What we know:
mainly alpha
Amino acid sequence: MKATFTRDEALxxxxxxxxxxxxxxxxxxxxGVMRYFAETLGYEAESDDWxxxxxxxxxxxxxxxxxxxLRAPELLREIGATDEFIxxxxxxxxxxxxxxxxxxxxxxxxxxxxxxxxxxxxxxxxRPSKSVDDxxxxxxxxxxxxxxxxxxxxxxxxxxxxxxxxxxxxxxFEETLSGMKKYKPAE
Length: 187
């Protein structure tokens, strides 16, 4: 899958439909994590495409929360996104608000890492440093077990995501944290 648009076009589309700093920050975080995973899983040549899928995965969420991933296709077509790209974006919400199943490894990674970045980001905000830089996987495990912490981050989705990839939870935690450390959100 090759994106048919630039990162600037993608970022402009994201900002057209999302103004909340939290949503922009989340999109940028997932963009970086997806780039990291592409590089570490042997998809370096596709890392820009993986990153763009991460950047735009929630393009419709802020403006159309009740139609999340149902409105995304029409919004993504504004910048000429292909059906394959749209499938990848929508697959992250499989079983939650759409029936687009993650099939490619990229889609499975997005499904698994999206929720987890939220949990890790919330855990980072509780730290004196407000950063993932000094965070260890043990901190993520502890927060993951605490169902009241970042209750909006579905532990079931994270577990299912790791299972879909054939990974232990700890590997998903380690790799996602590594991605968040390596690629800090930047516009």
